[in-house]
Specification:
This protein has a three-stranded mixed sheet with strand order 3-8-7, with helices on one face. The protein has a three-stranded antiparallel sheet with strand order 4-5-10. Strands 1-2 form a two-stranded parallel sheet. The protein is built from 15 helices and ten strands. Helices cover 44% and strands 14% of the residues. With 365 residues, it is an alpha/beta fold. It is elongated and about 80 Å long. 30% of the residues are buried. It binds iron/sulfur cluster. Iron/sulfur cluster binds next to helix 10 and helix 13.
Amino acid sequence: IHEKEMRKTQLPSMKNSYPNDFLKDINQLLLFRKIMLDWYDNNKRDLPWRKNSSLYKTVLSEFMLQQTRVSTVIPYFDKWLKKFPDFKTLANASEEEVLKTWEGLGYYSRARNLLKLSKILKSLETPPETVKEWMDLPGVGPYIAAAVTSIAFDAPIAVCDGNLVRVLTRIFAFDEEFKDGATAQKKLQPLAQYFISANRPGDHNQAMMELGATVCHPRSPLCVTCPVLNFCLSGQAGNAESFPKIQKKKNRKISIPRYWIESDGNILLKTDLSSKNKLFGIYELPSKLPSSIDYDLDSILSLGIRKRTIGNINYEEEILLVSKHKIENGELDSGYIWANEKKMGEISLSGPHRKWINEISSSRA
Ligand code: SF4
C-alpha cells in the first residue's frame, strides 16, 4: 500500500529544491503521518463541530471559520445550531432570519451562500461527495471543498489554508517569497497533497491545521514541544518566524463620515439596496443624508472617530451628531429607515455599528 501511495503522489515542481530528505523516503513520510495523527488524537481541541460530527456541522463550521477565529465562531455556531439544526430547517428560513442570526460575524455573503447551498442540498436526494461537485455550490472554493469532502466523505484531498502554508514553509525552510497568502496556498497545495494520509484524510487535514493553530503559531511557535520538530528545518535552526515569506500589502486608509440623527426616539439608519453590495440588507449609520432631511451645518458636532479594518483597508468613521434638522414630507429616500431600540433588535446591523450605537446611546442617555 505504501509504495502504491508513493507512486500515486507526484512531488510538486517548485522553484526551490527540497533540502529535507524525508520527502524522498516513504518510511519517513509514513512516520510523519503517524506522528501527526497520534498527536491529533491526543491533543485535538474539544470544538462543538467535532462532537457528534455531521455533514451539516462540518459545512457550517467551515463557512463560519473563513476569515474568523475559532473563539469568535464558537458562540455563533452554538446559537445557529439551536435555531437552524439542519440543512432542511435552514433551507426553509428567510434571508432576514439568516442574516440576523449571522449578525456580528461579518462577511455576510457567507451567510447568504450557506442559505443558497442548503436550498440546493434540500432539492437533492443525496449530498454530493466529490470536490468537483462541491466546488459548483455557492460559496465553496477549493479550501471548503477539500475540507468538507475529506472530513465528511474521506476523500483523500489535502486542504491548504494559512495554517498549512505556515507549517509547510517552516518544515522546509522555504525561501521563496509569495505575492500573497492565496498564491502561497495554491502553490503549496500539491505539497500538502503529498503529505495526506489516504487512510484518514479528514483527520490528517485537521491535524495539520490544528498544529498550525495551536503549536506552530505565527509568533513564538512552540517548537520545543512540537511533535514534528525532528522533521522541521526551521524549527531546528531556530528561525521559524522567518517563514512563510509573503509580500506585505500596504494597508489603505479611508475616512467616512457617519451621521447620527435622532427623531422621536429613533435613529436614522441606512442599508445599501444593491444586491451587489456585500452589506446589502445590513444597516449602518448613514454616510450621506437623505434628500428629505434638511440640516443646519453649524449644528454638527463630532462624537469621535471609530476605527475598523476590513481586509487591507483601515476605515476611520467619524460619527457626526446633527442636532438641528428638518424632515420634509416625512418621507425618506429608499434604503433609509428610522429605528428605535426594539426595531434595532429585529433588523441586522453590522457588528461594529451596533456596538458603536449602543455605546453612544448609553453615553447620551
Ligand atoms: Fe512549526 Fe516549530 Fe513545529 Fe516546525 S518545529 S512545525 S516551526 S512549531
